[in-house]
Inverse folding.
């Protein structure tokens, strides 16, 4: 996904960006739960400040910016979570379009619904 932040666009794909080495650094920096992929992503989704700092650190280092996870500059968590959410929604919409599914359909079956069966 592409996250727009502070006038830049950062790419973040947890599946490939949260490598063993990066998770080990996060575990050493923030504690044992931050070395666990699923826990880190759940904490980030819940708005945990350290988890979002971890995401920010991964994004910045992936983009070639010098950044230490302990000294990531302060940022507005709500604004970053909004940018993160917008990026996740855009990615989900793009995947849905690629699959040929109508993203406005609740069932995911596209815009063509089934015809009700008439009973007598």
């Amino acid at each position: 996904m592409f996250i727009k932040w502070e006038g830049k666009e950062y790419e973040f794909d947890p599946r490939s960006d949260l490598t063993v080495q990066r998770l080990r650094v996060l575990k050493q920096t923030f504690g044992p739960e931050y070395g666990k992929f699923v826990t880190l992503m759940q904490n980030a989704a819940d708005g945990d400040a350290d988890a979002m700092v971890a995401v920010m650190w991964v994004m910045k280092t992936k983009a070639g910016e010098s950044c230490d996870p302990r000294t990531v500059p302060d940022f507005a968590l709500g604004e970053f979570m909004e940018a993160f959410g917008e990026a996740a929604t855009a990615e989900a919409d793009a995947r849905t379009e690629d699959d040929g599914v109508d993203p406005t359909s609740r069932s995911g079956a596209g815009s063509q619904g089934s015809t009700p069966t008439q009973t007598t």
